[in-house]
Amino acid sequence: MVRALTPEISLFSVKLRKPMAYKPGQFVLLSGLGVEGPRAYSMTQHEPDSAELSFLIRKEAKGAFSKALFADVSDARPLFVFGPLGRATFSCAEKRPFFAIAGGSGIAGILSILHHAMVSGHFSKHSSHLVFGLREPERAYLLDELASAVEEAGGGLKVTIAFSDAPCPPEYAARFPSLRFLTGFAHDAVRQIFAEKAGAANPIFFVAGPPQMVNATMRTLIAECKVSPTEIRYDRFG
Q1: pLDDT of amino acid 64
Q2: Predicted confidence band at 60 (pLDDT cuts at 50, 70, 90)?
Q3: d(CA 84, CA 91)
Q4: Which of 68, 85, 102 corresponds to the end of one domain?
């Protein structure tokens, strides 16, 4: 199954022979389609009892695998799946809030954490925050889903959308009143949230996205916000 979010971003699902036990935030390696070598993709939901995995995949101009994947979405094609992998995981059993910062398609693994938290009723006891960095409003995606999550969480989840290349149009604030919109990079939004002292107390931090975004966010958290590196779980995707 394929669901296009933008011309460059789609949700893909892969059916397995049997369910795969995995933790929220983990990823797998996908290979096949006549392309040499595997590619890492995070699951967007946490349904370990299901034999279906969902992925948020960006079509990269120089990415042979993603170009092959987007080339024909009409028919099912065989893929090889290896995993699960990754240690940037979360469990509601930790009984702590989280502060997640995602850039672009790096939101995928954070969505799995969000799904796990929603199903478990985590936000009723542990208010958490998500910062989602995108380039511009015209190419935004998942805003409806994130707004619904905020409303369902009943005040236990805050979501900030940071547009780096253009300011947010006024109509977005009217359309998505449960979301906060800022202009700047994801790490700029983090800096502002900390300055306002609006983050949750004693959270676990998650950072996911392109290497440049992850590096900038890590510097902001550690050097400016004085967050201990041991409290940050992250993945870089090139």
Answers
A1: 83
A2: confident
A3: 16
A4: 85
